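Quick one, probably user error.
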């Protein structure tokens, strides 16, 4: 049995799905990489958390209030306008130019909702966005709780102090075209090419200054539709004691020991004001692996790092690209057994 090593992390930083690196060095000291296909499943727990989806119907409004319409999440302003019959098929003929005004306007998403469980029974309540497109200010019950500026990033906002039984949420979007232009103008140290796409594409400029799907500003094979909206899941999560945000891992073959090792990193949000004790059990049945680690989590700690060694006598088959060999994967489970009977399980392959 080994003890897991915890590491403190700035609580103001949003967790990101960072992987351990397994650098490939030239032979003979090459560290071979075993590719385990990630298929992370949902968390199963014993009264560990409660979740409420905010997918479905929202209200969308443009900046001056001349347009207000229903919209679906996940979705975008363009799709909502089309579904309401306010615009024709954006892909028809020159509609990419006719509807350029949509991406130049600032739009707002609003929703009122009642949470179907007792908020007072939970120590921590978060608002989770898996994908926001792209630049927006987030208000919860008329309180600004954060901003977004990256379409590809997961955002988590602590709403414990502002959440009620009946709530309102609002995302005020800024035109991605105007935002990119502002960012470009503010950047004076050096030029970031290209400023604009080729004229034949009839696209928008300064796409390099916004963390957004690059082809939405036009590409050689597609028109320009810089969308705004909530394009992935959004939900309320409430939990006690602690919550597992994510697990990443990197399998590495170390030539010096001629052994496979698995470096695992787990990010947890500790809601309790007291230390949390327990065990982590890592199991890979096909490789005859079952390792148990004791953990002690302090309220300010977010990261747990585990190192699992694979028995040298067990044959580990590597994963190969199509046409070069077999695509072998191994089922792995990571079980956190914590204070108060709390059990959190993650599965991957």
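Nope, works fine. Designed sequence:
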């Amino acid at each position: 049995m080994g003890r897991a090593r915890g590491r403190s992390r700035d609580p103001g930083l949003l967790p990101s799905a960072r992987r351990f690196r397994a650098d490939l060095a030239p032979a003979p000291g090459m560290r071979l990489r075993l590719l385990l296909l990630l298929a992370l499943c949902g968390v199963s727990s014993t009264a560990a958390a409660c979740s409420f989806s905010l997918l479905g119907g929202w209200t969308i409004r443009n900046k001056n209030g001349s347009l207000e319409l229903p919209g679906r999440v996940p979705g975008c302003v363009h799709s909502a306008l089309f579904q309401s019959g306010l615009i024709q098929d954006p892909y028809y003929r020159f509609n990419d130019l006719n509807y350029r005004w949509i991406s130049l306007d600032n739009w707002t998403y609003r929703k009122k909702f009642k949470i179907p469980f007792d908020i007072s029974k939970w120590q921590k309540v978060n608002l989770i966005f898996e994908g926001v497109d792209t630049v927006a200010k987030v208000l919860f019950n008329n309180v600004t709780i954060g901003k977004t500026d990256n379409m590809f990033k997961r955002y988590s906002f602590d709403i414990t102090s502002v959440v009620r039984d009946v709530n309102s949420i609002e995302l005020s979007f800024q035109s991605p075209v105007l935002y990119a232009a502002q960012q470009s103008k503010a950047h004076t140290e050096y030029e970031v090419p290209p400023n604009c796409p080729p004229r034949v594409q009839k696209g928008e400029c300064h796409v390099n200054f916004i963390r957004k799907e690059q082809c939405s500003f036009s590409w050689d094979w597609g028109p320009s539709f810089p969308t705004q909206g909530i394009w992935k899941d959004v939900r309320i999560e409430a939990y006690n004691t602690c919550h597992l945000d994510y697990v990443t891992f990197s399998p590495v073959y170390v030539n010096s020991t001629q052994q496979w090792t698995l470096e695992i990193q787990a990010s947890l949000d500790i809601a309790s004001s007291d230390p949390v004790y327990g065990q982590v059990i890592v199991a890979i049945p096909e490789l005859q692996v079952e390792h148990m680690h004791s953990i002690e989590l302090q309220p300010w700690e977010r990261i747990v790092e585990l190192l699992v060694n694979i028995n040298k006598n067990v044959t580990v088959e590597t994963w190969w690209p199509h046409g070069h060999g077999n695509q072998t994967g191994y089922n792995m489970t990571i079980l956190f057994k914590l204070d108060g009977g709390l059990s959190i399980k993650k599965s991957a392959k």
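The CA atoms of residues 258 and 312 lie 7 Å apart.
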